[in-house]
Structures
1.
Amino acid sequence: MAGLITMDDLTNEQILEILADAERLLPVARGEMYLPLLQGRILGNLFFEPSTRTRMSFETAMKRLGGDVVNLGDVKTSSVVKGETLFDTIQMVDGYTDIIAMRHPRQGAAQYAQDAARVPILNGGDGAGHHPTQTMLDLFTIKQAHGRLDGLKVVLAGDLRYGRTVHSLSHALTRFGCELIFASPDLLKMPEEIVSDLRAQGADVVETEDLYDSMNDADVVYMTRIQKERFADEDEYARCAGAYKLHARHLNGVKPDMIIMHPLPRVDEIDPSVDATRHARYFEQAFNGVVARMALLCRLLGVPVPEEVQGGAL
Ligand code: NCD
């Protein structure tokens, strides 16, 4: 069965259907009702890189739907340290599970894993490549706030060079006709091949270093962490660390319904003073990881989400 490796694996219509499924699953994600749609199914969580939200929200999603989860656990205590290849690990976990969520430091690893597996692979981040399940929860968050995805003005800011969340998100937003503003220090610009690919798809893209000025008529400001672990040169990291520090005082001239998002974890790019403003949406966004992943798990396992979600009481 096909998995989700990049956003190209989903049509716009499928994206909207999955978001609608996710919305109906909100009471299940909140634990207000129990709906064991995935009873008897097993998710394999294979995280070869640190993760809190992606791993835990996949696990929560599976368990809220009555399914089970097996974990690779800490890479240091798995056979990976004995030199097992990714190909072998995947072939084996394929036999233990019905679906696999995987994160790996190497770009392209998710596709490689999909080629080795019969079960669907959900790419939970492959190096600086893609992070499509994050994009699904990002789109869900944007749609909940603005009621639509099309035609919005979205600022993507921070580390656009190594940030996989913004690589996947910019492709999806382009397909929904959003206007994109890429705000980053010169060193961390969106890779040229991505920008030209987006433009070839008809994207309206502006690149700038001035984050604060670009926020004024935006509907969404998507902040990202500088991906320290992907820099080959520490001095290069030192030169762009702390490039943007969004503070509540920067929000005076913005649209009242503008939302600030962040895939988290944040370092210093959003000051805690922003948390209490009407614009902050990042913790809700992290919660949305549960519903978005519930809907994706159902879809890839071929289990329809009922039109009327009615579950038992807890
Ligand atoms: C992101 C990631 O791993 O790419 N985290 C996440 O999944 N929420 C962002 C990051 O690590 O900066």
2.
Amino acid sequence: MKKKFLDLGKQPIANSFLPSLSKKTLSNEFFYNLSVSFDTKNYLVSVTNPVNPKIQYTNKYAHRASESKTMREAFKKTAIKLKKKFSPKKIMEIGSNDGVFIKNFNKNNVIAVEPCRNLANITKNEFKTFPNFWNKDLARKIFNKNKKVDLVFSANTISHIPNIKETFEAIEFCLSENGILVIEDPSLKSVIKTNSYDQFYDEHVYIFSALAISKITEKYKLKLFDIEEIENHGGSLRYFISKKNSKFKITNRLNKIIRSEKKYGLNNFKTFISFSKRVKQSKYELIQLFKKLKDKKKKLISYGATYKSTTVFNFCNIDSKYLDYVTDTTLNKQGQYTPGQHIPIISPEEGFDNSVDYAFLGAWNFKKEILKKEKDFINRGGKFISHIPKVRIIKK
Ligand code: JHZ
């Protein structure tokens, strides 16, 4: 049974940056009610009413996975590791974005699936790219009885697809006998532990746990046999999945993580109710801090026009009254406005200057990279603010 535990209010599509604030653009802005539920049977946490993927993954999709050094390095490291461990001959990535992962493989061995045309266009000349949504029809188009894949990789994508049954059945269909599926997605335990409620937005239909993925895979003739805790995006899990009757044996570290999730209460509705209370407190504290700084006539901006910030700004009603603008390195976000609260987005070159007193870390998942990069800002007395894991001004 699905039980609702968190209400994040009226939200726009997290990636629907606005090109202008014209009447027409504003009147077309789409909003929906974002709430989050827990399925007591499958231990699955999901957005209660997912949005239609066709309005999310368009030819204007803004996120570029290769925009941060941290992620470029992480994908490279992962590719090397997977090559060494599984020696896959044929590889497919579902949700290949701008090619940050596949570019670490021989182009003749790779198939890319990416429904956002603007992103698929980036990889299509070098890699065999299908500009389609992942489903059974596409799986049948690419593969047949004899042609199968040894490694399916998918980072921050499987959790975005509402139809779990179709997704996993299509993957099971195309895996070779001992082929493996490797998925990376934010970990539910990290989200709850660090109070990162902003990991909930329209695209994150699911926030998975090992408990949930092991139940899901069982249903679709698959087997979760191993897992790794990784640092990506504030704490993610990398799941290793194979066909049910593959040679792979369930590892001790998987059993250990499942035990620790149970101990933490990820199979218990009460855990989510107390999380929801902490989220309300976080909202209150963030608004209080922003108000206090504005009363002192400080200049506040936000650093990184993330999708996560869409949730924070709309949940907490943070607009240009508090934040002068948001800086972001992504070219196609610059010159646009944030979804729902309409804060201008500009380049760091233009906006991250001496006039800034406080910068809210919208991209808190890259805190290490950003603090290292912005030493000058910190040395001249500039301060970063984060709401993760607690609302605070970051001390040096
Ligand atoms: P970042 C997206 O979420 C969407 P977002 C998606 N649904 C998902 O799951 C995750 O990614 C993985 C900028 N930046 O990665 C670049 C700077 O300006 O946290 C990005 O626009 N300066 C697929 O949007 C943004 O911040 C910097 O120094 O929440 C970071 O976005 C750095 C490091 C980043 O993902």
